[in-house]
Design goal:
Strand content: 25-35%
Helix content: 25-40%
Shape: globular
Strand order of the largest sheet: 2-3-1-5-4
Order of helices and strands: EHHEEHEEEEEHHEHEEEEHE
Radius of gyration: 19 Å
Number of strands: 14
Structural class: alpha+beta
Distance between the termini: 29 Å
Largest sheet: 5 strands, antiparallel
Number of helices: 7
Length: 273
């Protein structure tokens, strides 16, 4: 499930492309007083939410309407955020200053088994390999060992789609184990892939941005954006796709990466099977 905040700008501002840390901080303000979230906030798995960019992009004039979406597989996270935003309407992201005008809930439906559709990555997918993952996928770690790379290697097309898809399923498996429905097998406990097709949204496939994971830290990261095709195989696969929509895909999802939007959904044809 997800919520959408309708934001009205209260001042002119240039769009801040380095919004990730500030926007994450504003969302966290809605959860920080609750001890059940404080215990997991700075862990590797986090609280369990993902968020979009502020959209549409572009220079912001006072009075403009913008939107941001926040998704989570944990209903209580969204309920607590709704309660907070209902009484705390100021929504500042650095110099981008807004007031929350409306809050709405959404539950995208991928469809019953046999349905087909397309899911787009609304924000870039963060996929970085430590030495163990790189070795698992046959990725050269010489730059890492010589100190020419940071502690991880970012995915690039030459690493192959298998490495990317495996990393996506691995991170979603972790979400399943932490916050998912134990009735179902996890994404890594089935033989079939999560998506039928990956089509890059950007011509160059990957692109780089400056990312500030903490106030005093600024680094370059490499991301990719995708149009993801699917055909719902069964109820377990349907659950996996819904989990991906609720949690995002890839790594650093609580920093605003890998947020997904359902773009198309077609029911199964009558008599097909």
């Amino acid at each position: 499930m997800r919520i959408e905040l309708a934001l009205d700008s209260i001042a002119d501002a240039e769009y801040d492309t380095g919004y990730h840390h500030k926007l994450r901080g504003r969302i966290w303000r809605g959860l920080e007083d609750n001890q059940k979230y404080a215990e997991t906030h700075e862990t590797n798995h986090g609280v369990g939410f993902a968020f979009s960019n502020v959209f549409p992009w572009g220079h912001i004039n006072e009075g403009d309407r913008r939107y941001v979406r926040i998704a989570s597989p944990r209903r209580e996270v969204l309920d607590d955020l709704i309660a907070h935003f209902g009484t705390n309407r100021a929504f500042d992201i650095g110099q981008m200053r807004f007031e929350i005008a409306d809050i709405s809930g959404h539950a995208p439906q991928v469809g019953e088994p046999g349905s087909t559709g397309r899911i787009d990555t609304g924000t870039g997918v963060f996929c970085a390999f430590d030495r163990e993952l790189a070795d698992e996928h046959g990725i050269d770690t010489s730059k890492m060992e010589s100190g020419d790379a940071e502690t991880k290697i970012f995915w690039r097309p030459e690493h192959g789609m298998g490495a990317l898809q495996s990393t996506i399923q691995r991170s979603l498996q972790q979400t399943h184990e932490l916050y998912g429905d134990e009735y179902y097998d996890g994404p890594m406990e089935v033989d079939e892939p999560l998506f039928e097709s990956f089509a890059p949204i950007k011509d160059e496939v990957t692109y780089s941005i400056q990312f500030q994971p903490a106030t005093e830290v600024n680094r370059k990261v490499i991301l990719s954006k995708w149009r993801l095709g699917y055909r719902v195989r069964d109820e377990t696969h349907r659950y996996h796709l819904k989990l991906a929509l609720d949690a995002g895909i890839g790594q650093r999802r609580e920093h605003g990466f890998g947020f997904l939007n359902l773009r198309e959904q077609t029911p199964p044809r009558a008599g097909a099977g």
